[in-house]
């Protein structure tokens, strides 16, 4: 579901499950343990094939948790439908890092 990989100054968390209402609670709870250590994180969405507004809500909460602990959260490989949802809700709150061809 969430696979951490150290990558220099930030930990890359690769997500490999749909980010939908069905998985939101488990993602939120699992992600909390990775996001409260005060370090910068990159959420890599390369393998995410489905995202709905629940997934967007999870990302917003993860960002809040990371920021509250002193870290910074960025997104990589943002799916088009997630970007469309973010635009629809006029949310320009995520820092996007350049996409990678495959998760690193």
List its traits:
104 residues; alpha/beta; Transcription Regulator spoIIAA; globular
Task: Describe the secondary structure blueprint for this structure.
Blueprint: E1 2-7, E2 10-15, H1 21-35, E3 40-44, H2 53-68, E4 73-76, H3 80-88, E5 95-96
Parallel strand pairs: 2-3, 3-4, 4-5
Antiparallel strand pairs: 1-2
Give a verbal description of the structure.
With 104 residues, the protein is α/β, with parallel strands linked by helices. The protein has a single domain (2-96), classed as STAS domain (Transcription Regulator spoIIAA, 2-Layer Sandwich), CATH 3.30.750. The chain is built from three helices and five strands. Helix 2 links the parallel strand 3 and strand 4. Helix 1 runs parallel beside helix 2 (53-68). It is globular, with a radius of gyration of 12 Å. It starts with a strand and ends in an 8-residue tail after the last strand.
Structural class: alpha/beta
Number of helices: 3
CATH class: Alpha Beta
Number of E-state strands: 5
Rg over C-alpha atoms, rounded to the nearest angstrom:
12 Å
Average pLDDT figure: 88
How would you summarize what this structure contains?
This protein has 104 residues and is an alpha/beta fold. It contains three helices and five strands.
């Amino acid at each position: 579901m969430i696979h951490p990989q150290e990558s220099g100054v930030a930990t890359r968390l690769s997500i490999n499950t749909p980010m939908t209402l069905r998985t939101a609670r488990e993602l939120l709870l699992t992600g909390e343990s990775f996001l409260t250590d005060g370090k910068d994180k990159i959420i890599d969405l390369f393998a995410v094939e489905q995202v709905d507004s629940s997934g967007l809500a999870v990302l917003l909460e993860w960002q809040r948790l990371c920021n509250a602990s002193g870290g910074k959260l960025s997104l990589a490989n943002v799916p088009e439908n997630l970007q469309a949802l973010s635009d629809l809700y006029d949310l320009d709150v995520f820092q996007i890092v350049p996409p990678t061809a495959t998760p690193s």
